[in-house]
């Protein structure tokens, strides 16, 4: 194998690792609860839904 083939294989594996890491981080559960400010734990039951 020549040097160009080896470089292409290394770049391909690095890109594959990068994409797999992005997918894993977007699917894995967050360990810090609601630190992302998603407001999933907020109680909206006493808010009036009228428009101003």
Task: Please give a structural write-up.
This is FeoB-associated Cys-rich membrane protein. 48% of the residues lie in helices and 0% in strands. The chain has 52 residues and is an all-alpha fold. It has a domain at 1-27. The protein starts with a helix and ends in a 25-residue tail after the last helix. The model has no long low-confidence stretch (mean pLDDT 81).
List keywords for this structure.
52 residues; mainly alpha; 1 helix
Query: How many strands in all?
Result: 0
Query: Main β-sheet: number of strands, strand sense, barrel status?
Result: none
Helical fraction equals: 40-55%
- Assign an overall shape: rod-shaped
Instruction: Write down the Rg.
Output: 22 Å
Mean pLDDT: 81
Number of alpha- plus pi-helical segments = 1
Note poorly predicted spans: none
Backbone structural class: mainly alpha
Q: What oligomeric state best describes the polypeptide chains here?
A: single chain
Cα(first) to Cα(last) distance is 70 Å
**In percent, how much strand structure appears in the residues?**
under 5%
String of helices and strands? H
Protein name: FeoB-associated Cys-rich membrane protein
Pfam family, one: FeoB_associated
């Amino acid at each position: 194998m020549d040097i160009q083939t080896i470089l292409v294989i290394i770049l391909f594996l690095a890109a594959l690792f990068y994409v797999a890491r992005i997918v894993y981080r977007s699917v894995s559960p967050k360990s810090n609860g609601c630190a992302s400010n998603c407001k999933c734990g907020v109680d909206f039951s006493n808010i009036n839904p009228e428009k101003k």
